[in-house]
């Protein structure tokens, strides 16, 4: 995060809650894994988000049912 600030990075990708709070305190522009995947769907890099989310969840990635539903709705799935 310090390097991102020094380099004035356009975007920092973080999923950890504590790290995200620190990034916000440092006024860094951030997103998480789900944000990257949603952008990939919007840019037609991936055809469907649902299977990718399913695989992440199977591999132990935590995502609440509510957030999962909201992301799928945003993706038009």
Describe this structure in words.
Helix 2 links the parallel strand 1 (12-13) and strand 2 (30-31). The chain folds into 2 domains: 1-31, no CATH class; 33-77, no CATH class. The mean pLDDT is 92. 57% of the residues lie in helices and 5% in strands. The protein has 77 residues and is mainly α. 6% of the residues are buried. A two-stranded parallel ribbon has the order 1-2.
Can you give the mean pLDDT?
A: 92
* Count of folded domains: 2
Give the number of helices.
5
State the major sheet: 2 strands, parallel
3D shape: globular
- Note the run of SSEs as H and E: HEHEHHH
Category from helices, strands and their pairing: mainly alpha
Strand content: 5-15%
As a whole number of angstroms, the C-alpha radius of gyration is 14 Å
The total count of strands amounts to 2
The largest beta-sheet arranges its strands as: 1-2
Give the uncertain stretches in residue-range form. Answer: none
Residue share in helices?
A: 55-70%
- Taking the alpha carbons of the first and last residues, their distance comes to 33 Å
What's the quick description here?
With 77 residues, the chain is mostly helical.
Which helices and strands, and how do they pair?
Layout: H1 2-7, E1 12-13, H2 17-25, E2 30-31, H3 33-42, H4 50-58, H5 65-74
Parallel strand pairs: 1-2
